[in-house]
Amino acid sequence: MKNNLLSKNQFLHIKKLMQKKYRYQYQEFIIEGLHLIEEAIKYPKIIKYIITSDKNFKHDNISIFITSYDNICKLSTTETPQPYIAICNFIQNNCLYKNDFILLLDNISDPGNLGTIIRTAYSFGVKDIIVKGVDIYNPKILRATQGAIFNINIINNMNLDDAIIKLKNDGFKIIGSLLKNSINYNNLKINDQKLVLILGNESKGINQKLINLLDYKIYIPIKFESLNVAIACGILLSKYLK
């Protein structure tokens, strides 16, 4: 496919996508670097076109637009970006769950934590993640997932209460990670049950309304006051997805 020059209007449009409100208005987002682009290419209809300063870069099925490296830097959120950016359509995920284990994230605020959790969940074979209160197309989150975001069914759900009640009616047991009034996670015996694991906000924890819906409350015993939520996620997934 022949390469074309990036127009001023295209540049201004992409610049807008660096803001959350325009990402959701146009249902588009930016990914940076060859690794993320190569991961996204595996899935049809994700990438709309690629922008690069590499005039020799080619792809048979995706439109390539050439621009200066200076423009690449203006469209990037990293200090020394790779000369490859792709504009993608929002990922059309399925509201039907693919497995008997669901990870639910209640207002995880740090993009790095969320991206690491998504990558960790993918490595453990998690198929479904429900998230609330975050923009999964934040550039820091996308980088931290290392492409795992394209491989997991991520459902944005603003009404977690209703989602959990429905899951309970479908036979899922709900586990929440809490510091108080909970049992050591090693002492919780789970046998072939459909599970939802809830992890809460880094400073506020799980919302009280969701706590009231828990079947099991667990904690990870440590010698510090608290544990990074992404690390806690890895420990708990290792336990419950054996």
Account of the 3D structure:
It is elongated and about 60 Å long. Helix 5 (111-123) runs parallel beside helix 6 and helix 5 (111-123) runs parallel beside helix 9. With 242 residues, the protein is of the alpha/beta class. The longest helix is centred in the middle third of the chain and has 13 residues, at 111-123. 31% of the residues lie in helices and 23% in strands. The protein contains nine helices and twelve strands.
What is the gist of this entry?
With 242 residues, the protein is of the alpha/beta class. 31% of the residues lie in helices and 23% in strands.
Task: For the structure shown, list the relevant keywords.
242 residues, elongated, 9 helices, 12 strands, five-stranded mixed sheet, alpha/beta, seven-stranded parallel sheet, 23% strand
